[in-house]
Please model this.
Amino acid sequence: MSHLTPAEALGLLQSNDLIALGKRADEVRRQFHPDNVVSYIIDRNINYTNICTSGCLFCAFYRTARSGEGYVLPYEEIKKKIGETIDLGGIQILMQGGLHPTWKIGDYENLLRRIKADFDIHLHAFSPPEVCHIAKLSGLSVEETIRRLKDAGLDSIPGGGAEILVDRVRNQLSPNKCSADQWLDVMRTAHKLGLKTTATMMFGHVETLEERVEHLAKLRELQEETGGFTAFIPWPFQPDNTPLKNRGIQKKIGSLDYLRTLAVSRIFLDNIPNIQASWVTQGGKVAQMALFFGANDMGSTMIEENVVKAAGVSFRLGEKDIRRLVIDAGFIPRRRAQDYALLPEPAGV
Model:
């Protein structure tokens, strides 16, 4: 089967025939997942610091070191959060934070080693902008930085900080963050070193539809090269409380644009096996609809989530809620690991 071309993808993003688009995306999903299973993971998102030098215009979460509102979580608090996660059946910690102005590689190694000494848990941590920042402050190459983090306990890398992988957009939204090529190079290097990663796209702000397609094309090309992406997670920009809203960017895209973009992503990214629905930004009902527009995964139970919440969005779903939504849509819910391997069904769920 030939790839969908960028021109064809652009045409689909401009299409008003949402039903036909959803049907086509659903056919691709069924090719990857003919068993009718919809997966999810029990984990917790721990933001170890909100202090950040990037100053991204779309972010309502970060604080500067001088703001008086910045924090670095004490290890004992991190330890408590991980213990609570395990007690709730969690198997993974998603750990991301701001680009801290003074933390270097040793600080991150120490944190990873302390966690691994205390817990048997998967650490899905440090997005590409964090990796680039750590490398720069520590005087290391990206490869050496990832090697050292891996040796200290890093198990996989989340796809955060991608936003739109076009430097015109990045220069406007996040000029102090890594470039599109640097983001891709972190993922390429991680894959080469045996770490699986996810890929993301935050859309619906200053990008054009052509730039959404360019983003997808760069991900598909890297996946052809490395095969290291386990999943793709697109979500719409949440404007409330962000500097971007204060500059007049107040639009908040609707569910139809979300479902259309999700469906085109599923069709275009025909070498990435999993597409995740974003109930965190869209709510349960739209995420349920996403299962008919190409998504096969409901993401995390999100025992804790802070970044989207800071932008004024506070959807909450527990494991029972996610399973009910999946079953009501006619699918089979299953717990999974970070690599999307399905886990045994526990008693009583």
Summary: The first helix runs from residue 6 to 13.
